[in-house]
Amino acid sequence: DHVGTKTLGLCLAAAHVLFFLLQYQDKEEVVLWMNTVGPYHNRQETYKYFSLPFCVGSKKSISHYHETLGEALQGVELEFSGLDIKFKDDVMPGTYCEIDLDKEKRDAFVYAIKNHYWYQMYIDDLPIWGIVGEADENGEDYYLWTYKKLEIGFNGNRIVDVNLTSEGKVKLVPNTKIQMSYSVKWKKSDVKFEDRFDKYLDPSFFQHRVGFDPGWVNFLCTYLCVSYMQDRDLGDEYGWKQVHGDVFRPSSHPLIFSSLIGSGCQIFAVSLIVIIVAMIEDLYTERGSMLSTAIFVYAATSPVNGYFGGSLYARQGGRRWIKQMFIGAFLIPAMVCGTAFFINFIAIYYHASRAIPFGTMVAVCCICFFVILPLNLVGTILGRNLSGQPNFPCRVNAVPRCCVRSFKAVLMFLLRYFIFTSFWAYKIYYVYGFMMLVLVILCIVTVCVTIVCTYFLLNAEDYRWQWTSFLSAASTAIYVYMYSFYYYFFKTKMYGLFQTSFYFGYMAVFSTALGIMCGAIGYMGTSAFVRKIYTNVKID
Ligand SMILES: *[C@@H]1O[C@H](CO)[C@@H](O)[C@H](O)[C@H]1NC(C)=O
Q1: 163: domain range?
Q2: Pair (244, 116) in one structural domain
Q3: Last residue of a domain, one of 139, 167, 200
Q4: Is residue 278 a part of any domain in this protein?
Q5: Does 393 share its domain with 245?
Q6: What is the pLDDT at residue 216?
């Protein structure tokens, strides 16, 4: 029986499959994203690239859908450069746009050059840096670099290396036109895709260009961790079999637990549907329509919550199912509304325009009681009747196993989980195209990591995997929330009680919802895994 090992292998393989999603076809569109511009000597002070009067290339639209969770989280607003770049398709040097340099624009550039401004761009997640311009020795004439020479290295179907050379120094003279140009040269490269970030980890590169950035540190940790995982054999292979009589023991606090799992499943369903609707409907054109859709979808998916929460509660032998249903149904609405009302009071106090009208509050309460609750009831009844019977592959011992010796195991487990978390959180922040992809990656990674960690836990003969799998997957939220602090203090210029509470309040709601969703996903995946391995075990 190597089912466990095989599943683990599958999970590791799945992680590798993710990397294949980054392949390109010949002539496929490659997007050059413009990120930020700012003084070289103060890395925290950044502005949007187009806050300087640069001009945009002629290509107006991209076929990729680009609003991503990562951008929203990080506040990075990558903007399309307008440059036409296709995979393995060389572009000869040519003008892509013209800057009409009036006095004002010249002053902006001169200010930037005086302060040694540099800018950052991304191609396929690879960061690229360039200098805006140069002053001559006596500091009277200022020059702008106008020609971006891009050399992109590819290995198979993937981009592995990018070099930018700035050329074409043009003196800034008011009331002239400055032509901006670019060229792209594709070169075969031997760099492996897995190693493509290595050049940024080279200490000399670090010193000169990147500076200290948590993203890179995370990346390094991950690298170490993954190699550690692959080298190490998976510990005692048989520990998990010892706990077969306890593995399916109900979790502690089944009421809260099943409510959390139910809510998490619902959040997942909502995210999935909203993203699909957004892709079809182009929701982003209208502000706020996203939120209304989300509320509508949330109400409509209430049966999902009832079904999963209710059936889990029944399987765990819970009797107070009405109470469970109420808690499950109102957990998320109460959290969101509580935060919103709290912020609202502050907003009213400050006479801010973001105060929520009284009518809206009443409407939200009505939706909770007259739509969400009844639909939850339907779901709960269905769930209890259709899958409320405990049918575990192993019998549960009457007496719980004593003396769980797992403190160290749990600690190691959380540590490992954090490292993994930082891995994919890093990936999400610098993320690829679509929200959908983000969600899929999020699910796969969460499930895989939680399974691997649960396996370690069971091998340490600790059977309390239910809460552990939920909490460890949910701890992602802690990471995101901590990141929001970093972001607040280093990347934004917010001030005042209202802005601060608005930001941290909603980030808390977002992180918690994300945590509950990940927790539920992690638990569902792990639960399937545990069932699978104990179905095949022969108990002697
Ligand atoms: C980028 O520059 C490095 C160092 O000069 C060089 O080794 C590498 O081949 C270049 N890559 C491409 C794609 O030109």
Answers
A1: 24-200
A2: no
A3: 200
A4: yes
A5: yes
A6: 43
The verdict on 282 and 155 lying in the same domain is no
Instruction: State whether residue 133 is helix, strand or coil.
Output: strand
Looking at the structure of the chain, the number of domains it has is 2
Q: Which residues 6+ apart lie within 8 Å of 212 measured at CB?
A: none
Count CA within 13 A, CB hemisphere, residue 503: 22
Clarify whether residues 105 and 237 are in a common domain: no
CA-to-CA distance for 78 and 121, rounded, in angstroms? Answer: 8
Separation CA 160–CA 95 (nearest Å): 26
For residue 309 the two structure tokens come to: 């929460």
- Distance, in Å, from the CA atom of 240 to the CA atom of 336, rounded to the nearest integer, reads 40
**Mutation test of ligand 1: which of 88, 151, 162, 163 has the most ligand atoms closer than 8 Å to its C-beta?**
163
Which run of H or of E encompasses 151?
A: strand 142-155
Residues 413 and 509 in one domain: yes
Residues 194 and 95 in one domain: yes
Closest protein CA for atom 10 of ligand 1? 163
In this prediction, the residues of the chain whose per-residue pLDDT falls under 50 are 1, 14-20, 63-76, 202-221, 223-224, 227-228, 230-235, 283-287, 423-434
Report which protein residue has its CA nearest ligand 1's atom 2. 163
**Angle at 215 (CA atoms; ends 209, 217), nearest 5 degrees:** 85
Per-residue pLDDT, 497: 74
CA of 190 to the centre of ligand 1 (A): 11
- Ligand 1, residue 162: give the atom nearest the CA: 13
| The residue count for the chain | 540
pLDDT digits (tens, 9 = 90+) for 478-519: 877 887 787 777 766 566 676 678 778 888 998 899 999 999
What secondary structure letter does DSSP report for 481? H
In a domain? residue 411: yes
Residue 132 lies in a domain: yes
Find where tokens 């679509």 sit.
434
285 and 185, same domain (yes or no):
no
pTM value is 0.55
Pair 129, 253 in one domain: no
For atom 13 of ligand 1, the residue with the nearest CA is: 153
Q: Which residues line ligand 1 (CB under 6 A)?
A: 151-153, 161, 163, 187, 189
- Specify the DSSP element, H or E, that contains 94: strand 91-101
Q: Which of 148, 171, 200 corresponds to the end of one domain?
A: 200
Inter-residue contact 206 to 200 (CB < 8 Å): yes
Residue 536 identity (one-letter amino acid): N
In a domain, 337, yes or no: yes
